[in-house]
Design brief:
The structure holds two protein chains of two kinds. Chain A is α/β, with parallel strands linked by helices. In chain A, about 30% of the residues lie in helices and about 25% in strands. Chain A has three domains: about 230 residues, FAD/NAD(P)-binding domain (3-Layer(bba) Sandwich), CATH 3.50.50.60; about 140 residues, FAD/NAD(P)-binding domain; about 70 residues, Arc Repressor Mutant, subunit A, CATH 1.10.10. Chain A is built from 15 helices and 23 strands. The two termini of chain A are about 15 Å apart. The relative contact order of chain A is 0.14. Chain B has a single domain, classed as 2Fe-2S iron-sulphur cluster binding domain, sarcosine oxidase, alpha subunit, N-terminal domain (Ubiquitin-like (UB roll), Roll), CATH 3.10.20. Chain B has one helix and seven strands. Chain B has a five-stranded mixed β-sheet with strand order 2-1-7-5-6, with helices on one face. Classes of the chains: A alpha/beta, B mainly beta.
């Protein structure tokens, strides 16, 4: 690795790969940093094996100028020899971004026998920086969500896709996410059992959201086909049902659910008990904005885009000069938008560098495509949204911060005392000060605050993040 | 769960070379290319650490390096994320 690169891309998911493909071949030194052992991010993870080469999307993918489906993106990915000028570093974490795009990066030592160690920290200068850090899942906490055997929908999928391991013999799927059906079909394909799929969203609400799909009927079709697939395989599929509690001593043994009324409130006496080996649950997505926030990038709040997102201009430049953002961190809208934005950010950077980034009016075409892809965001995020009454109703003994083990009762108490912003509530409760640095509980805490105080997002305040944005052993600094 | 003799591996998935890990002092078969968390789960090991205050057991939650619940000691280095680490032959893993 060198000390300086023309462009540094953080994240090698769909947006990062699309950007690297576009930047390659222009005589630039490009560094791609990713914390996973392999490229691909979450969507492409099973298609990207550990390799010395690189990955490329079929260059014809954006030619039509129309909506690009996830399926087409996945199918068009192919391995290539690593283009000249591109360096990839995996299992490395960017700890912070400092003035003039100086990066601190933690690179681990090999974990093989005899090669263990705390890793070391490097300083790297970036001429231009592209942040493509993706998204994670959001959750509505319930009693027992910390039990081994309760995992996110994504975790269950990752186990099968990356390692060929079933999450369990019998898996119950719950929450509000379109990942539910994808996961159920994947489990069945791999000869696992799906105890049931419990979707909190009522069918009537889904129908009401359909007009939002406009240019994206293809995706509605995909959803309908998945639902049909589950019906054919006789999977128990219930809508308007929420997990209220996971029970078990040391490990998950039973799950208690309740039916929801039209407003999303549990109907008393509607409890049911399931006994799966694993519970996979998730309530939509949340952008990974910690690194851009630490770098000083301005945010906007838009529930239809997944909450706090990075503010970008038409060229995808953030409020910090020469720092660009692409993909889920500018708004949750799936792989199609990530692909187009990765290309658009790369084209913007190439134009700044005085290079010709493609055919005439290519940038304008990408901007048009990006607008179209963004249309899917409202549908997706509203589909996953949990009503604020659900946050209000969380029982006092439910843990909200899994790391620091802070309960809803403690949070309620401190909010009642007047700690009404994300910042002050964090300091009053330590909620969000643990190992995950608030990545799981901060979006929850924010929704709890909105629900309990009736404040606007701006009053509650946007998240703050300081370097190092990921855990790093002190020894790694000493080794540098 | 710990007494299962068969594992959760999908029969027809592509696997790398067979390797052996040492998990809490016991040999555990895994395959190259698997992450540590998947190799442990396949053998029914679900509780990976103990939460400090409540003493609750914790296991895989996000599976993608976000939640830090799957921390284990690997080759003597504490607090390594099982979900982000590829298993290698002879790797020493300590849970809890």
């Amino acid at each position: 690795m060198k000390q300086a690169y023309d462009v540094v891309i953080v994240g090698s998911g769909v947006a990062g790969i699309a950007a690297a493909n576009t930047l390659a071949g222009h005589g630039l030194e490009i560094l791609v940093i990713d914390e996973n052992p392999q490229a691909g991010g979450q969507i492409l993870r099973q298609h990207c094996r550990v390799t010395d080469g690189f990955w490329e999307f079929d260059p014809r993918l954006d030619r039509s100028g129309r909506t690009v489906s996830t399926q087409r993106i996945v199918q068009s990915l192919r391995p290539v020899r690593r283009p000249k000028g591109i360096t990839c570093v995996h299992q490395a974490r960017v700890l912070g971004i400092f003035p003039d795009r100086q990066l601190l990066v933690h690179v681990p030592d090999s974990l093989g026998p005899g090669g263990s160690g705390p890793g070391h920290v490097l300083g790297i200068d970036a001429g231009y920086l592209l942040l493509a850090t993706g998204a994670r899942e959001r959750f509505l906490p319930f009693k027992g969500w910390t039990l081994p055997g309760v995992m996110s929908l994504g975790a269950a999928q990752i186990l099968m896709k990356s390692a060929g391991v079933l999450p369990a013999r019998h898996t119950l799927i719950a929450g509000t996410s379109p990942l539910q059906m994808v996961l159920a079909l994947e489990i069945l394909k791999n000869k696992g059992n799906v105890t049931a799929v419990l979707d909190e969203t009522h069918f009537a609400k889904k129908l009401g959201l359909l007009p939002l799909l406009k240019h994206h009927w293809v995706l509605a079709g995909e959803g309908a086909m998945q639902m049909l697939g589950l019906m054919i395989r006789k999977v128990r599929f219930r809508q308007g049902v929420r997990v209220m509690e996971a029970r078990g001593k040391n490990e998950l043994s039973t799950v208690v659910t309740a039916d929801l009324d039209k407003k999303g409130n549990p109907i008393s006496g509607s409890f049911q008990i399931y006994s799966p080996e694993a519970l996979a649950v998730g309530h939509g997505f949340c952008p990974n904005i910690e690194l851009p926030v630490q770098a000083g990038c301005a945010l906007d709040y838009d529930a239809d885009r997944g909450g706090w997102v990075v503010r970008v201009d038409h060229a995808l430049e953030t409020s910090v000069a020469a720092v660009y953002a692409a993909g889920e961190i500018t708004g949750i809208a799936g792989a199609g938008k990530s692909f187009v934005e990765g290309k658009l950010a790369a084209v913007s950077i190439l134009e700044k560098l005085g290079k010709t980034p493609g055919p005439d009016r290519y940038a304008q075409k990408l901007v048009r495509m990006q607008k179209q892809q963004l249309g899917y965001a409202s549908f997706l995020n509203q589909l996953c949204q949990v009503p604020s009454s659900a946050y209000e109703a969380i029982d006092d003994d439910v843990l909200i911060c899994r790391c620091e083990e802070i309960s809803m009762g403690e949070i309620r108490k401190q909010i009642a005392k007047g700690f009404g912003t994300t910042g002050s509530l964090k300091k009053a409760t330590r909620c969000g000060m643990g190992r995950c640095q608030g990545r799981i509980c901060q979006p929850v805490l924010f929704d709890i605050l909105l629900a309990l105080t009736g404040q606007t997002p701006d009053q509650t305040g946007s998240p703050s993040c300081r370097a190092p944005v990921k855990n790093v052993p002190m020894a790694a600094f000493l080794e540098s | 769960m710990n007494n299962r003799d068969t594992d959760l591996r999908i029969a027809w998935a592509n696997r790398g070379q067979k390797i052996t890990l040492q998990v809490d002092g016991n040999p555990c078969t895994a395959y190259e290319g698997e992450t540590v968390h998947a190799a442990l789960l396949a053998k029914g090991i679900r509780a990976l650490r103990i939460a400090g205050k409540t003493g609750e057991l914790r296991g895989i939650f996000c599976g993608m390096g976000i939640c830090y619940e799957c921390r284990v000691t690997i080759n003597g280095v504490p607090d390594q994320l099982a979900c982000m680490t590829l298993a290698t032959d002879g790797m020493q893993i300590e849970t809890r």
